[in-house]
Design brief:
CATH architecture: Alpha-Beta Complex
Order of helices and strands: HHEEEEHEEEEHEEH
CATH superfamily: Nucleoside Triphosphate Pyrophosphohydrolase
GO molecular function: coenzyme A diphosphatase activity; metal ion binding
Number of helices: 5
Radius of gyration: 17 Å
Pfam family, one: NUDIX
Helix content: 10-25%
Protein name: NUDIX domain-containing protein
Largest sheet: 8 strands, mixed
Cofactor: Mn(2+); Mg(2+)
Keywords: Hydrolase, Magnesium, Manganese, Metal-binding
Strand content: 25-35%
Length: about 230
C-alpha cells in the first residue's frame, strides 16, 4: 500500500462520546429514507474527493449499478466496538479484505435494512434479535459499480456468531474509540486513468482496514462526531 499522505490541515481533538451519547446522536441524525442514487445511475454519490467523484461518474456510464447494503454493527459494551469481518480469500470481489457484514440487495429483500440484516445472519450468524437498527448512513459508491447503503445499528452483547466460511474467514471487533479517532484515519492516494483519487486506511493491529470499509467509517465519524 502507499504511504500515508501528510495532512496539511490537522484534525481537531477527537470528540469523546460514550455509548449513550453515540447512540443518541445517531438516532437524532440518521433515518430510514432510501436515497434515489442507490438505484439511479444518473445520481452520483458524493464522496468529497474530486478524483473519486469523477471516477464514480465514469463507472456509472460504463457498468450497471450494483445496489448493496451493509450493517455497521456497534456492539453496546461499556466501551463500544464495531463488528467487522475478513472476507474469504477465494471470493471474486474484495477477497481477503476487511468488511462489514453485507452484500448485494436481492429482489426478495423488503428494504436495504432487510438486506443488511439477512447478510449479517448468513455471513456470521448474527441474530436479528440482538440488533436494533438506528438509520442509514450516506450512500457510498465504489470503483466496482457498487452503491452501498450502510445501516447503523446498536447490537446487544451476548450474541453467538457462526461463521459461514464460504463467505467469511473471520469476524472480530474493533473499539469504536479507535475507529472514530481521526488520528487513526490515514489518507492515501492512487491513480485512476490518469487522475489522482484519495482513500482512507485505518490499520488496527494486524488488520488492514482500508478502501470502502474505511471510507464508510470516515463518513460515520463525520456524521456523528462532527458538531
Amino acid at each position: 500500500m502507499n504511504k500515508p499522505i501528510p495532512d496539511s490541515k490537522p484534525e481537531r481533538e477527537p470528540v469523546a462520546l460514550g455509548a449513550t451519547d453515540f447512540f443518541a446522536r445517531s438516532r437524532a441524525r440518521l433515518g430510514f429514507d432510501v436515497p434515489a442514487g442507490l438505484y439511479d445511475p444518473n445520481i452520483i454519490p458524493a464522496s468529497g474527493d474530486p478524483g473519486t467523484d469523477k471516477m464514480l461518474e465514469i463507472i456509472a456510464r460504463e457498468q450497471p449499478v450494483r445496489p448493496a447494503a451493509v450493517l455497521i454493527a456497534v456492539v453496546d459494551h461499556p466501551e463500544p466496538t464495531i463488528l467487522l469481518t475478513q472476507r474469504s480469500a477465494h471470493l471474486n470481489d474484495h477477497a481477503g479484505q476487511i468488511a462489514f457484514p453485507g452484500g448485494k440487495i436481492d429482489a426478495t429483500d423488503a428494504s436495504p435494512l432487510d438486506a443488511a440484516l439477512r447478510e449479517a445472519e448468513e455471513e456470521v450468524g448474527l441474530s436479528r434479535d440482538f440488533v436494533e437498527p438506528i438509520g442509514y448512513l450516506d450512500l457510498y459508491g465504489t470503483g466496482f459499480g457498487f452503491r452501498i447503503l450502510p445501516t447503523v445499528a446498536r447490537v446487544r452483547p451476548g450474541f453467538a456468531l457462526t461463521i459461514n466460511h464460504s463467505e467469511v474467514d473471520d469476524a472480530f471487533e474493533v473499539p469504536l474509540s479507535f475507529l472514530m479517532n481521526p488520528v487513526n484515519h490515514q489518507l492515501h492516494s492512487k491513480e485512476f486513468r490518469g487522475m489522482e483519487r484519495f482513500y482512507y486506511a485505518m490499520p488496527f493491529a494486524e488488520r488492514y482496514i482500508w478502501g470502502a470499509t474505511a471510507g464508510m467509517l470516515r463518513v460515520l465519524y463525520e456524521r456523528i462526531y462532527s458538531s
